[in-house]
Amino acid sequence: NEGLIEAPGGQVLLAAGRSVDLVDSALPNLAVRVSAPQGEVLNLGQVLAGSGRIDLSAAIVNQQGIVRADSLGAGPGGQVQLLGSQGVNLGADSLTSASGASGGQVLVDGGSGSALLAGRLAAVGGSGSGGGIQLLGRQVGLLDGSLVDASGAAGGTVHIGGGLQGRDASLRN
User: Fold this and answer.
1) Distance (Å, whole) CA 127 – CA 125
2) In Å, how far from its chain's centre is CA 83?
3) What does the alpha-carbon distance between residue 27 and residue 163 come to, in Å, rounded to a whole number?
4) What is the pTM of this model?
5) C-alpha angle 64-67-71 in degrees, rounded to nearest 5
6) With contact defined as beta carbons under 8 Å apart, do 51 and 76 qualify?
7) Strand pairing of 27-35 and 19-24?
């Protein structure tokens, strides 16, 4: 994605395999095949789903742009999931956010590879509790200039690399 994808209150899914066939049921003999090198999702643009849900899923997720599921109005933030079975990279200029009156949820999971953050992750609660952020992978790196913010009036939750001392069975360490 190099442009703008917008679904206020809805859901956006960017997924990649070796190829995806887009077929209109009214014209089943006409199809468009989109190929992605090595099963990579690359976002250089903006993906916006105010109060909704955004999923980027592939072998490798490369988030260099803006992914926002911030609330529409006074509601809670939405949900963002960046799932890369072989790794997730969030570039220095990237913003991944699910903020609102109360914070939403952000999950970044590098699978069997690394999760590297150089940009910003936010699940901020403007007037209520902060949201939840999970940054997981075989290796997890917060690079110079990165920011993780789940703040709010009643606090939020951030898990980097798993649960406390590896004892939280609900999170992969």
Assistant:
1) 6
2) 7
3) 50
4) 0.88
5) 160
6) yes
7) antiparallel
